[in-house]
Specification:
The complex is a heterodimer of chains A (108) and B (114). With 108 residues, chain A is mainly β. Chain A is 0% helix and 57% strand. Chain B has 114 residues and is an all-beta fold. The radius of gyration of chain B is 13 Å and the shape is globular. The N and C termini of chain B lie far apart (34 Å). In chain B, 33% of the residues are buried. The chains are: A mainly beta (108), B mainly beta (114).
């Protein structure tokens, strides 16, 4: 059974700083998604990573996938308050299996 | 507007009552999903459907019933609501012929069972 772990579960960071969220999974998969959820809102798709070594970037967020290490990272560059949200990775088994989420809070 | 909608957005009910949550999508996506979101658990799959009249259990199906008579609708029924079913419920859909394509989520229904 596929297990998906994210860490940290909660991240409080200062504006302008860099940080990385990690998504580890337990069995082979070569497709992974990152979603964002604002408080009280729905999930919004951020990135689709379709193969080993895939890297996607949008604005201050960059996601990568290492299928051999069973690891995806979501890197935040020069954080701003608008990035405050909960970020989920979802790994493909026969269905999507979601991590528990990382709640990111960016403060001045 | 095209998209995926859920109704009601908020619902308060009592233990033992039947509740139906509605989900409607206008994309003609083949796959539709129901998740529940609880603190500390992320999203857990309740049921999913590959097409009209085809449904299958997810991770936490007990206490729930689904149907899909039309491609665009995927209602979720709690036959006899329990307090443990208090949660936020999200419907999602995806296109294509496999269950793991990118999913698009509805706005959610916050259900409270007293």
């Amino acid at each position: 059974e596929l297990k998906v772990e994210q860490n940290p579960l909660f991240l409080s960071m200062q504006e302008g700083k860099n940080y990385t969220i990690y998504c580890n999974y337990s069995t082979t998969s070569d497709r992974l998604y990152w979603y964002r959820q604002d408080p009280g809102k729905s999930l919004e798709s951020l990135f689709v990573l379709l193969s080993n070594g895939a890297v996607k970037q949008e604005g201050r967020l960059m996601a990568s996938l290492d299928t051999k290490a069973r690891l995806s990272t979501l890197h935040i560059t020069a954080a701003v308050h608008d990035l405050s949200a909960t970020y989920f990775c979802a790994v493909v088994s026969d269905k999507l299996i979601f991590g528990t989420g990382t709640r990111l809070q960016v403060f001045p | 507007d095209a998209g995926i909608t859920q109704s009601p957005r908020y619902k308060i009910t009592e233990t033992g009552r039947q509740v139906t949550l509605m989900c409607h999508q206008t994309w003609s996506h083949s796959y539709m999903f129901w998740y529940r979101q609880d603190l500390g658990h992320g999203l857990r799959l309740i049921y999913y459907s590959a097409a009209a009249d085809i449904t299958d259990k997810g991770e936490v199906p007990d206490g729930y019933v689904v149907s899909r008579s039309k491609t665009e609708n995927f209602p979720l029924t709690l036959e006899s609501a329990t307090r443990s079913q208090t949660s936020v419920y999200f419907c999602a859909s995806s296109e294509g012929t496999v269950s793991y394509n990118e999913q698009f989520f509805g706005p959610g229904t916050r259900l409270t069972v007293l």
